[in-house]
Amino acid sequence: MEHFGHHFIAVFGGSVAGSEAAFQLSKRGFRVVVFDQNALPYGKIEDGLPKWHAKLRDKEERLIDTKLDQPNIRFVPGVRLGRDIDFEDLVKRWGFSAVLIAVGAWKDRKLTIPEPEKWLNKGLIYQNPFMYWFNHKHEPGYTGPRYEVKDNALIVGGGLASLDVVKVIMLETVQEALLKKGIEEDMFTLERGIERVLDKRQLTLKDLGLKGCTLIYRRGAKDMPLTNLVKDTPEKIKKAEATTEKILNNFRSKYLFNFIPNHMVYDVLRGDSGEFSGLKCYKTKIVDGRVVPVEEATIDIPGSMVVSSIGSVPEKIPGIPNTGSVYKMADEVSCRIDGFENVFAIGNAVTGRGNIKESLQHGKSTTVEVMEQHFHWEEKDFEDWLRGTESNVEEQVESIATQINRKKYMSDEVIQSILDKTTEFQLKAGYKGKYRDWITAKLPIRLEQMLQKDHG
Asked: What secondary structure does DSSP assign to 289-351, as a single string?
């Protein structure tokens, strides 16, 4: 086993898939460098999983810490592939035995309107920066994007991520409206059910002067991807559709939002001065399983703003070949990237899915029975998916390790060069080589901590 010390592997991205890959490689005796574009390696566990999942988030981040805090793993924060390190230079000159790409999916798919960039932050917001803002806006000294959440907002999408956005908008608008009446309710209380909070106080949305937000989906309620139930027989399809509709209805009752199914956005509705004032939509029909717009049937949907939640894809990195929204693979087992002997993709770069609840596993299908009284997965179900990810990454790493072991050992000079280069990046970020110290210093203050302090 000691000869494995003569192989050095680079992993870009330290979150769920990246940390598991690094851990599995380190167990096999390989040296590993984990580069992460952020100060913390937690990815969408920290920045995309809504902060009301406080205990789950902290638990999973501690697990990532355990995996990365290993003697033969070097953590390098604040380094982005394609920005701070050129991919071609990395592959040709750094000398790594293998490079694993686990950078996640942070790029939102563009909303299907003419010139969407014209409306960005002028009525149009995308899901990824919006959820990042929601998760971090409470932090003292926060310097990220800032958004004003308005009543009568529109959300375009239909998956679990879009329901998270709906929930954020309803929590924010109701909390602010209650405060104007002198009523303080924290986010964690409202998250357990807006309807319950208002009923207790004998209030309605109308009493608060609110219309509520509206979710626009191109298919019907029964088609929303809210469960992972198997649909391989007519009976199972019927059961899955009924479960999905019940989940959505219960969610609507709990959070008091509006829903417009079977409509597809095609343009922006403009006000008298040309400002954003809503969306223009086609009615849709399903033909052979495909969504088809009925162009003669249109509807204008007034709204104060729109959050697009139609999916996330990996950022394209110069030098890495793509097919559609994912990297082009030459080997489906190890997920080796086409054109390279020692570059592999894991996680969202393989699946092309940016929704944290959808993308935690690839290569195998797992049935998760969703409790009908909940709109989202129970935390145990979520953890099951995480554990499934780890199992799949371990299988992929086994294939990668076999290929690495066929290679010549790295020279001491190449190893030292990698150590020198990574140390330079660490020092530039202010990282002094002790992972636990770094995490302790950089972990943002939690909202629940602030609330406990405020309430003494």
From this structure: TEEEEEEEEEEEEE-S-EEEES-EEPPP-TTS-EETTEEPEEETTTTEETT-SSEEE-THHHH
